[in-house]
Amino acid sequence: MQETILKEVTITAISAEDKSLAKIDGKVIFVDNAVPGDVVDVRIYKSKKKYAHGSAIHWHTYSELRATPVCAHFGLCGGCKWQDIQYTQQLIYKQQIVQDALTHIGKLTDLPEVNATIGAAEQLYYRNKLQYGFSDKSIVYDDSFNNKMKFDDRPAAGFHVPKLFERILDIEKCWLQVEPTNAIRLFIKDFLLKNELSFHNIKRHEGWYRDLTVRTTSTGALMVICSFYYKDEWVERLLFELKQQFPQITSLYYVINPKMNDYNTDLPMNLYYGEAHIYENMGDLKFKISPKSFFQTNTAQAIQLYDVAKSFAGLSGNELVYDLYTGTGSIALYIARQAKHVVGIEYVESAIEDAKENAQVNGITNCSFYAGDMGDVLNADFVKANGKPDVIITDPPRAGMHSKVVQAILAMDVERIVYVSCNPATQARDLELMNEKYKVVKIQPLDLFPHTTHVENVVLLVKRTV
Ligand SMILES: C[S@@+](CC[C@H](N)C(=O)[O-])C[C@H]1O[C@@H](n2cnc3c(N)ncnc32)[C@H](O)[C@@H]1O
Q1: Does residue 390 line the site of ligand 1, with CB under 6 A?
Q2: Cα–Cα–Cα angle for 336, 387, 431, nearest 5°?
Q3: In what order do the strands lie in the sheet with 209-216?
Q4: What is the pLDDT of residues 295-325, one digit of tens each?
Q5: Which residue is closest in CA terms to ligand 1's atom 11?
Q6: Ligand 1 centroid – CA 418 distance (Å)
Q7: pLDDT in tens, 9-58
Q8: What pLDDT does residue 38 have?
Q9: What tens digit of pLDDT does each residue of 393-438 get?
Q10: Chain mean pLDDT for the chain
Q11: For the domain 4-61, what is the CATH superfamily, name and number?
Q12: Beta carbon of 326 within 6 Å of any ligand 1 atom
């Protein structure tokens, strides 16, 4: 195939999937590793009638919006792809992503202004949970100029690279979580190499050590979960050494995962040492976290998110609130003291158990939690049994709400709905379905994942007057 190189292309905007774009004669060119404002030569690797994909291979001008990435793995690691864009600009882009989704996907016309994105005070070390993979195969170099990856058959401990199933990018230092996260990962890797123990290969289904989860808290509690393909005498030796080396670990778990996938949460978690749970504070609440619990990964920004949801809900203390997709009940519990009663619904039963326990831990008695699929649970009988809500807060997964759930919400005929979303595209789709009956009156994007394209968005809907 003949190579096409476009010369001196001005990058004008960001786009989905971490790419930037330019337009040439009406054709959209998606460009890897460039930033709006860059002027670059682009090697095209895929071309269709209306759009093309290419990689920037030579820079004529560097954008003023650029920042210097702090991470040595930037570019190859899929984690923090916007580290080369100034943080203030990232926030503007996130606001734009929300605006575009609501107008283009949701086709909403009578919108209020989208508020400026609420940024994170800490743009590094913001995650309270990280999971690292181990593999006997690594990836070492992204030769973007030739659009090729370079592989290495040495073992690695770090992160999976999208689409490269069995390979792991070997990480020296990750900036997403406070220490001793890197020290623990490097210690385990070193222990395996020194003792000639095998790293798991997920494609061939062999190799002993699989993955590592580290959970840190602002209270100093530290949970570590090690995953092995099979149990032998080395499991205990590794855990013993880990505990000796890192006395700050407060809960040390292991899991034996003989499955074809890395998903651990359906397997028994074995406590090797320490406390069964760790605790984290959010505002004046204390949350109990077990190894399988879902917990928002950026605690500081989750508090900001919940504050926005609480203020949009406009509670006076007399309201019955439904918290849909409640997870471990964090939003329900966060607003409980400002409401008469809160009903939380979620389909993961263990999360509902955690929610009930967290209510108890915090002495909250005005919340009820139900486990079940939203599409099945939320119906007229449920409303009859639990009361018609004054306010609904909904925080669905990335896929958004099932249309059946949207219909059930519309049938409840509440005055106010607060829609919290981690995916503005599906949120916009759902809002379009509700547009006839509800008007969007407030829009607040928040950044829970600095240096990524992810954006959370909270919308307040009020019932239209006829
Ligand atoms: C974005 S999380 C929200 C969690 C919670 N609001 C929080 O802030 O921690 C979405 C939640 O919806 C739950 N979920 C996903 N699909 C569901 C369904 N069909 N029915 C009920 N819950 C569901 C997930 O298990 C997850 O806990």
Answers
A1: no
A2: 75
A3: 148-152, 138-143, 164-170, 156-161, 129-135, 209-216, 222-228, 251-256, 270-274
A4: 899 999 999 999 999 999 999 999 999 999 9
A5: 325
A6: 15
A7: 999 999 866 779 999 988 999 998 899 999 999 999 899 989 999 989 99
A8: 96
A9: 999 999 999 999 999 999 999 999 999 999 999 999 999 999 999 9
A10: 94
A11: Nucleic acid-binding proteins (2.40.50.140)
A12: yes
User: Does the active-site annotation cover 226?
Assistant: no
Q: Report the CATH number of the 129-282 domain.
A: 2.40.50.1070
Measured CA distances, 333 to 187, 278, 444 (Å): 38, 18, 21
Same fold, 89-122+298-463 and 129-282: no
CB of 456 shorter than 6 A to ligand 1: no
The full length of the chain comes to: 466
Say what the pTM is: 0.93
Give 230 Cα–ligand 1 centroid separation in angstroms.
32
Q: How far is the CA of 196 from the centre of ligand 1 (A)?
A: 42
- The answer to whether 189 and 243 have CB atoms below 8 angstroms apart is no
- The answer to whether 344 and 369 have CB atoms below 8 angstroms apart is yes
Domain 89-122+298-463: state its class: alpha beta
Nearest CA to ligand 1 atom 27: 327
